[in-house]
Design goal:
Elements lengths: L1 H4 L5 H4 L5 H4 L18 H4 L2 H11 L2 H4 L4 H12 L2
Length: 82
């Protein structure tokens, strides 16, 4: 999700997730975050397409604002306690 936020992925992967700002016009604090799609089955709820944005919402903003991918990896590793 870090690379998605910073447009560092190939177009097909960028197209997998819409941002909240593309889904609605409300000016919220999560407008730049990926939109969590509704799901109909348990199988979909366990998929990457659904889980990745869900996890992204749980991490602190300071981690999301890392300058590089390696800095993000280091911070997320410490955050998760590995």
């Amino acid at each position: 999700m870090y690379q998605h936020k910073h447009h560092q992925l190939p177009r097909p992967l960028l197209a997998m997730h819409n941002l909240n700002i593309e889904t609605h016009e409300h000016n919220t604090r999560h407008r730049q975050d990926p939109h969590i799609t509704s799901r109909r089955t348990q199988k979909i709820s366990k998929s990457f397409i659904h889980k990745a944005p869900e996890f992204w919402y749980t991490i602190p903003e300071v981690l999301k604002q890392a300058r590089t991918v390696s800095a993000f990896k280091n911070k997320i590793t410490r955050f998760l306690g590995y």
